[in-house]
Amino acid sequence: xxxxxxSATTKPYPEVLASYIQVTNDFFGNPSSxxxxxxxxxxxxxxxxxxxxxxxxxxxxxxVFTSGGTEANNxxxxxxxxxxxxxxxxxxxxxxxxxxxxEACLQLEKDFGFDLTIxxxxxxxxxxxSQLENEIREDTILVSVMxxxxxxxxxxxxxxxxxxLEEYPNISFHTDHVQGxxxxxxxxxxxxxxxxxxxxxxxxxLKGTGILYVRKGIRLTPLLSGGEQENHYRSGTxxxxxxxxxxxxxxxxxxxxxxxxxxxxxxxxxxxxRLSTMEGVVLNTTKGHSAPHIIHFxxxxxxxxxxxxxxxxxxxxxxxxxxxxxxKSLPSKTLLAMGKSKEEAExxxxxxxxxxxxxxxxxxxxxxxxxxxxxxxxMKR
Amino acid sequence: MRFEHILVRFGExxxxxxxxxxxxxxxxxxxxEVLKDFPAIRFQSNRDRIYIQLNGEPHQEISKRLTGxxxxxxxxxxxxxxxxxxxxxxxxxxxxxxxxxxxxxxxxSARRADKTFAVPSDEMNGILGGHILxxxxxxxxxxxxxxxxxxxxxxxxxxxxxxxxxxxxxxLPAGISGKAMLMLSGGLDSPVAAYMTMKKGVxxxxxxxxxxxxTSERAKQKVIDLVEQLSNYGGKMKLHIVPFTAIQEQIxxxxxxxxxxxxxxxxxxxxxxxxxxKNGGLAIVTGESLxxxxxxxxxxLFAINDVTATPVIRPLVSFDKPEIIKIAxxxxxxxxxIRPYEDCCTIFTPAAPKTRPKLDKxxxxxxxxxxxxxxxxxxxxxxxxxxxDKKDAADKSLDSLL
Lengths: 381, 402
Hints:
The complex is a heterodimer. Chain A is an alpha/beta fold. Chain A contains twelve helices and twelve strands. Chain A has helices at residues 14-26, 36-56, 69-84, 99-112, 129-135, 158-165, 240-276, 304-313, 323-326, 333-337, 342-346, 362-380, and strands at 2-3, 63-66, 90-94, 115-119, 140-144, 172-176, 195-199, 210-214, 282-283, 294-298, 316-317, 348-352. In chain A, the strands form three sheets. Chain A has a seven-stranded mixed β-sheet with strand order 2-8-7-6-5-3-4, sandwiched between helices. In chain A, helix 6 links the parallel strand 5 and strand 6 (172-176). In chain A, helix 1 (14-26) packs antiparallel against helix 7 and helix 3 (69-84) runs parallel beside helix 4 (99-112). The model of chain A has no long low-confidence stretch (mean pLDDT 94). Chain B is an alpha/beta fold. Chain B has 14 helices and 14 strands. Chain B has helices at 20-34, 59-66, 85-97, 121-135, 189-199, 217-234, 245-254, 260-279, 298-305, 321-330, 334-337, 359-366, 371-380, 390-393; strands at residues 5-10, 42-46, 49-53, 72-81, 105-112, 140-141, 148-155, 158-167, 179-183, 203-210, 238-243, 283-285, 312-313, 383-386. Chain B is elongated and about 85 Å long. Chain B starts with a strand and ends in a 9-residue tail after the last helix. The A-B interface holds A 19, 22-23, 34, 36, 39, 42-44, 47-48, 50-51, 57, 61, 187, 189-190, 244, 247-248, 251 and B 58, 60-61, 216-218, 221, 335, 394-395, 398, 400-402. Chain B: Pathway: Cofactor biosynthesis; thiamine diphosphate biosynthesis.
């Protein structure tokens, strides 16, 4: 088996899973309860929060635990929009955002009368900071640009955008860091980021836990009402085992990437080199400004889904666009935004690696891919 | 731009004569302690400076921590280059470019510590000023009140280009003046008293009275968090947690209600004094402020203080509450202190505590109970948490889970 869909989700570290089970068993008290069981859970959660904050270069009270990346993105965007709607209703996002950002914005536009500017990207999938600045208006309240694109791996110029937004103190700056977390350093304070979303299962934690960094001084309207947990931002009894697991996974993943990230980058380059010589393959990931774990390519003429299933028969797991949208089998919006043809956008394949990926098996993948392409092309004729 | 150095200047230390090197060494140790999670940094010190060589570690975070260390008068970010006019020009321009906004003013203050350097200081000011003026836009010179003062120091080992002076808290390096015991309740006052005592170089060990089930684990956690916050200033601290329940229950039963508070305080002071002897302290620090509550009238202080001849330092004696709150906010203890858990001072508060207790009465009421053995027992069962290694402060049993 060769699992190459690490952008969709990663396998939890065994140590993380062990923590999750132990915490579920031994720290099952409600952190809000007064008694010792509650205080034990609360204490563990506080340590987890402190560790998470340290790893992200943030303060403890700037960390809000959520149910995942989607909730973190929704809370950041809608929370800001509702908090600031009396001041302005204009939001700027990039054209290549994840659906949990894009759909949240579209909902604000459709149902709540917000005004949305969707920024075009260049052929690399990158936003131009100066173009972004041109779109800023008096009533702009929020800019949301992802850190690393989940489909093609493009890294956005977050630091530059943050720097230019410093001139606009009324605009909140959100970045969806779900694909970049642990893999590509992001200096939250240095880059002037106000809100930043992470998801634990993308760095070998468990599904059901996300993190939203909310810079001190930034206020959000909560989306959930109730017991006012998580600094009032996210009511509901905290998922203590998930939170502990997330903190542990983040620590381990950061250590792993610091140690082995370079080798992963080299592997990515080798894979890209090999793919570029393969007949029928068009690379969509560019060499510069891209994440060390994502390689995206198209095989025009072959629908992505067919290739995915063909590779699956050889025990190789890759994906089409993003896992969240692939069931709709529509052409990739990201690729279209990058100026790719419809045919290319319908035939995209994403390989997402991990530092633990067994490289000796990649040769098998290349062979299987070559054969699959040849075979399917022949069938079509 | 990347800063390679931070240059630290001393405050009151500079006036010390023969003991100066001891002060500098202590400060250097304290800085090292606070910055020990940045393994790449290196230190160099001489009579009047400490240079921190950053080796790629983030200057923002390090600067933030330096602003809290006693004994530091001010510090500057510095870039170092060869003592060569062209190199200095280049580096100074880079430095100003990384900070100025259109419309700002600047000034160059060059100094030659190395008198063999060919260009005199005045001339250097002119050369660098001219170079910057002709390579920037909307930046002008103002020698009286510049927005940015760039200090250039030519030394034999190289030239330091410094700017962005940031002030430290001043005072003396923590630990230089000996040790005292701090009575730490968890309220707003005692952490502020701790901070002010530490400022004068006093090393503190905190004493907290813990009365389960009347006070909770969370109240204890609050104190642990306070000590952890305070150890950012002192570099290290110990916390003694005294089991106090038995004594409080005895007081409740044996002492008339309006004297319970006086007796409670007296017992606390006695225990703290015994812990002081055990741990080699020379004084006791409290957060008492005159007239704030019943236990803090002069009569009360007199009756309470009678149990010891040890100096009791009360840095807040003349402070008003708003002043204390302001400092608590500045030193980051406010938000911890206001967490709403009962502490042992509040659980048995009588409806009408005596504001003018009589010493002989207090002595008489207490004479019916063997408080000597009770306090001895409390001292013997005191649990000490050592915050010297910060990791110890966190619950180690949780480490494997995270």
